[in-house]
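**Fold in tokens:**
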Amino acid sequence: MDKRKFLQTGAAFLAWPATTVMRAAHAAVDAKTKLVVADQSEFIRHLLDASGQRKQIGFQLDLPNFAGGPAIFEAIRAGALDIAYVGDTPPIQARAAGVHLPIIATFTREVAQYRLVQHASAGVERLADLRGKRVSYVEGSGRQVFLIEALHRAGLTLKDVQLVHLRVSELNDALRAKAVDVATLIEPHVTRLAKQIGARVVPDPQERTLLPSTSYFYARPEVLADAQKAKAIEAFLAAFVRAGKWSNANAQAWGEHYYRKFQKLDAESASAIQSSLSPLIFQTAGEAQPHHQRLMDTLLAAGSLTRRLDAKDSFVSTFDAVVTANR
């Protein structure tokens, strides 16, 4: 899609009153409607399947899997996606690039998802030991802000480490080959690399509490203005929230489905991962804005943004009623 047209469409959508969008959303959804939603680690696919919510969706749902926010951003800009499941940083990077992809739903865990992981001989015993180390850097992903905040807790900045720019798909191999000393990873990769190469988490007593693990669904503006698509998004989000509630209440069944059968982890590893996770929390636009503003301000202070952005401009409240009714 032409970038100018993309921006004009976004501006036109944001000028619409919420009632106009809601009228579109309440139109009857046609079973032939197709909604394309970017997934990561096949999380959405398996959450909907395990909970039984996939059967409640009366339209065509396509869930292509991606490795990280930057690849998703390119696909949604090209018009290949309707909405996308992304981490907390990609919507900010999109705005910084002049493309406004409205956030339509937020879900979070109070406990951090990311971990700083070192290879066995890296010798990082505290955050301050990161000085001078080769550290993976994935710009445009949630890993970016997590690393910045970890460095801040040690009185360091990005300039104090050797940044190695990588794609998400390259992180595990880079750590195995010792091409980096430290990588920002999520499960099950933390547990797998611990078993495979003796990798270990960088000691940081506060890492699990200071930065919640937040993810968003963002959308192409013209998709939200389409009556059939908007209704499909409404139904999808309702199913997703119900599925998330199911996973909170049925941790054993969810772990067996996703970690044991899909990710092929042994029982001990699956249990360790689940015990480290706090429940999913589903937020409205207003509830999500303070954390989003904090992320923007962190990136601004680190020099990753050239101007201050206002979090309230990143969200639309179109589907807040769906979230609150089902959470």
